Amino acid sequence: MGNKNSNISIFDSELRLKGAFSFKGRLIMKGSFEGKIAGENLVIAEEGVVLAEINAENVTIGGQFEGYITALNEVVILSTGICSGKISCKSLVVETGGLLNGDIRCTKDPTTEPEQESVPVDKDELT
To answer: Among residues 78, 77, 74, 12, which one has the least CA distance to residue 48?
Structure first.
């Protein structure tokens, strides 16, 4: 009672889908999906396989993910998770055993692209 994220949806393991959709609450993905997803709290279960562009508040990866993630808050890669692609978020957690390959950008506001800043390097300091 009083839990604003009481909506829980399950994308079952036998489901295979391509397209785009949005959701509220928590979505647990156990099947295969390719496309675009927008929502609040997305969980890719251990048996889930997702190739997508994701815009969500929080994303937890326990299965396989490839694509782009923009998370307003946190991305968590569980010990069973395999993630590759581009991630923008406020906070990133990778459990021991989780695999992460990609371009990662953790910022206070993950929806904006940071300006590229050049950092001067003194070559003499490198030797």
So the answer is: 12
